[in-house]
Amino acid sequence: MPLPVKPLIPPNQEHLYQEVQQALAEDIGSGDITAQLIPAERTSQARVITREAGVFSGGPWVKEVFRQIDARVFVAMLVKEGERLVAGQTLFRLEGPARALLTGERTALNFVQTLSATATRCRDYADLVSHTQVRLLDTRKTLPGLRLAQKYAVTCGGCFNHRMGLYDAFLIKENHIAAAGSIAKAVAAANKLAPGKSVEVEVETFAELDEALAAGADWIMLDEFSLEETRKAVIHTQGKAKLEASGGINKRTLVAMAETGVDYISLGILTKDIQSLDLSMRITN
User: Is the whole-model pTM more than 0.90?
Assistant: First the structure.
């Protein structure tokens, strides 16, 4: 049965359009009155640099920003998605109507600084466990309105996507189990409702782990298991289901958890509490 780990490259064009359209609407509103100080016929060139090292993500959003503002703007990307960056590096150049460059500046940089920060965080964590077979997964702890954008950036940083939302895979948690009556009943209902969709069960004890295995869960989330408990769970499961470690895992404990032999580790920190990459745009003529 397929597992909900999906690279999101290239980004979904419909969502890309909608995200940019919404971002421009909240920034421009009835019109950029400051840009109107510039003669409409003036054309300019600009370059965007990063003031710090990181991993790049967000090129498609930059192109879409200026496409929606003024299709005459030419965008020359000088770096690739997922490329490591050094401080002072030029990321892309722009050429076109000066008004359009100025109007799109903040929206374009907002996307890049946020998505690059996400990719940078993911690359940092992925590098820590590159000697193991574990895959690091994101969660639904994303910025409102930027779910797919951030999940795209996660893949640029070398990590992987868990489910996109509540619609594409089952994740049966404590309250679902309580409402359904048991793990077995919840898994059976899931298989009946949507045959072929991955069914994951969150467990907190070894007794629940055995219940999930007996019920035929494809994927089991070990919630707040200690390192020793996780090692035992890997041996106990014997490959009958994919195992995901989750809860309370941080940068200090990540490597040890990866070395337990679990298939996946999910980390909300990959997409939340990130610090935007420091970028700057300068008009060059």
Answer: yes
47, 63, 93, 106: which is the annotated catalytic residue?
106
Q: Examine the residue annotation and report whether 185 is marked as an active-site residue of this protein.
A: no
Catalytic: 106? yes
Q: Is 32 a catalytic residue?
A: no
What mean pLDDT comes out for the span 120-133? 97
Pick the catalytic residue from 32, 223, 229, 259.
223
Strand ranges inside the chain, DSSP E:
43-50, 54-55, 74-77, 84-85, 90-97, 135-137, 170-172, 199-203, 219-223, 242-246, 264-266, 279-283
Q: In whole angstroms, give the CA distance from residue 153 to residue 126.
A: 13
Residue 280: both structure tokens together: 């700057």
Q: Which two structure tokens, joined as six digits, stand for 173?
A: 């948690």
Model pLDDT, residue 15: 87
Q: Which residue has the higher pLDDT, 50 or 163?
A: 50
173 tagged catalytic: yes
Q: In terms of Cα–Cα distance, which of 235, 161, 169, 227 is closest to 202?
A: 169
Angle at Cα 280 formed by Cα 278 and Cα 285, nearest 5°? Answer: 170
Using the predicted structure, report yes or no on whether residue 249 has a pLDDT greater than 70.
yes
**Is pLDDT at 4 greater than 70 in this prediction?**
no
Question: Is 223 considered catalytic here?
Answer: yes
Report percent pLDDT > 90 for the chain. Answer: 89
Q: 138, 202, 218, 244: which is the annotated catalytic residue? A: 202
Q: Which residue in 93, 140, 141, 197 is the catalytic one? A: 141
